[in-house]
Amino acid sequence: MKKLNLVFLNEQGKSVTLSLNDPIEPADPVAVKAAMDEVIAQNVFVSTGGLLTQLKSARISENNTTPIQIV
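^ thats the sequence. predicted structure below, dont judge the formating
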């Protein structure tokens, strides 16, 4: 499954990652940055280290899982 990982810094300077499933590809960097800016402006999320204060990075990651049948 692919995920869009939005990485912010909180008030303590620690990284906080928000992950969204099934991102639209190719990702639009301008739209991603605008969405991240809005998350910070609206104080939508609070981490254990406080409010999100800065953008750090954004990335799309993919995790492939293959189940193994155990008898």
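DSSP finds one helix and four strands in the chain.
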